Amino acid sequence: MNKDKTLLINTRGLKLLADSNLLKEFAVFLYLKSLYSNSCIFNYTQSSLAAKSKLPLSSIKSNVKLFIDSGWCRMHRGNLIFNKVKEFCHTKRITRKRIAITNPKQILDDLYKLILEHAEDKFKILTKISADLLSSHPKIRRSAEKKADRLNLDINKLPGASDLISLSMKKISQLLGVSVGKAASIIKRFKTDGSIWCVTERKVITDPWIKWKPKTWLEYNTGHYYHNGMLFKVCCNKYKFNK
User: Fold this and answer.
1) What is the band of 178 on the pLDDT scale with cuts at 50, 70, 90?
2) Which tens digit of pLDDT belongs to each residue from 80-110?
3) How is the chain split into domains, by residue range?
4) Contact 183, 169 (CB under 8 A)
5) What is the rounded average pLDDT for all residues in the chain?
6) pLDDT of residue 3
7) Which residue has the higher pLDDT, 155 or 6?
8) pLDDT-based confidence at 2, cuts 50/70/90?
9) Cβ–Cβ contacts within 10 Å for residue 127, how many?
C-alpha cells in the first residue's frame, strides 16, 4: 500500500460532497482505492476487501453499494473498478493536497482541513484587496478598486489587511457538513495537534440598563455572560490554519 500519495482534490467539488453529507464516505473511498495500484479489484468479494482493508464487513457492504449507486465505482465482469476522482468531483479550479494514506479517519481529517483552508484562502483575497487599497502605488490601488467592483464588494466593510478569518461554530459545521457538536470536536482536535491556532474575543457590554434586566434576558441572548458585575459578549473565534 502506498502510504504517501498526492491526490488532486478540487475544493469546490469537495464542498459539494460535504453539503451532501458524503465526506466520510469519500474518505473511505480514497482509502480503499489506494489499496489497489490499478484501481481495480479482480474477482471482487466483500469478504476479501474487508480482509485487505481491515474494515468491518458491514462497512464494506454499505459503502461499496453507495459507491456504485453514486457512480464512484462500477462492476465489470466480476471486477470492482474505482473510477477516477475527477469523474465525479470536478470543476476547473484544482487544489493539490498531499494526503498520507493511513486510514479513513486521517483522510477525513485532511479533507476537513482542506475545506477550512479553502475558506481561509477566500478570506485572504479580501484582506489582500484591503491592503492594496491602502497602497501608495496608484496602479495597485486602481487594480484593487476594480477587483472589489468586479466582486461586488463594499470596500467599507472589507476586513483589515492583517485580520484573521472569523468563523462561528455554526458556520464551521455548515462548511464541513456536520453537526455543531461534531464541528466543535473537530476544531478541538485540530487545536491539539497544532493544525490551527485560534483566539476568542470577548467584548464588554457597558450599557447600564442591561445590568438590571432579569436573568431570563441571557436565555434569549446567547453568547453573553456576566462576570464580576459586567456583561460580556463572546465573539466568533478567529482562526489561522497551519498549512
Assistant:
1) very high
2) 999 988 777 765 555 666 666 789 999 999 9
3) 5-102, 106-194, 202-241
4) yes
5) 85
6) 47
7) 155
8) very low
9) 17
Question: Which H, E and C letters describe the chain, residue by residue?
Answer: CCCCEEEEECHHHHHHHHHCCCHHHHHHHHHHHHCCCCCEECCCCHHHHHHHHCCCHHHHHHHHHHHHHHCCEEEECCEEEECCHHHCCCCCCCEEEEECCCCHHHHHHHHHHHHHHHHHHHHHHHHHHHHHHCCCCHHHHHHHHHHHHHCCCCHHHCCCCCCCEEECHHHHHHHHCCCHHHHHHHHHHHHHCCCEEEECCEEEECCHHHHCCCCHHHHCCCCEEEECCEEEEECCEEEEECC
The CA-based angle 88-93-96, given to 5 degrees, is: 85
Fill in the amino acid letter for 153: L
Residue 168, CB half-sphere, CA atoms under 13 Å: how many? 9
Q: Average pLDDT for residues 46-63, to the nearest whole number?
A: 97
Q: How far, in Å, CA of 120 to CA of 114, rounded?
A: 10
Copy the grid coordinates of residue 81.
Answer: 473498478
Provide the grid cell at 87: 469523474
Q: Kindly tell me if the per-residue pLDDT of 115 is higher than 70.
A: yes
Chosen CATH of 5-102 out of 2.120.10, 1.10.10, 3.40.50, 1.10.287: 1.10.10
Backbone angles phi, psi at 219, to 5 degrees: -70, -30
Which residue type, as a one-letter code, is found at position 93?
A: R
Q: Which of 67, 62, 61, 108 is nearest to 85 (CA)?
A: 67
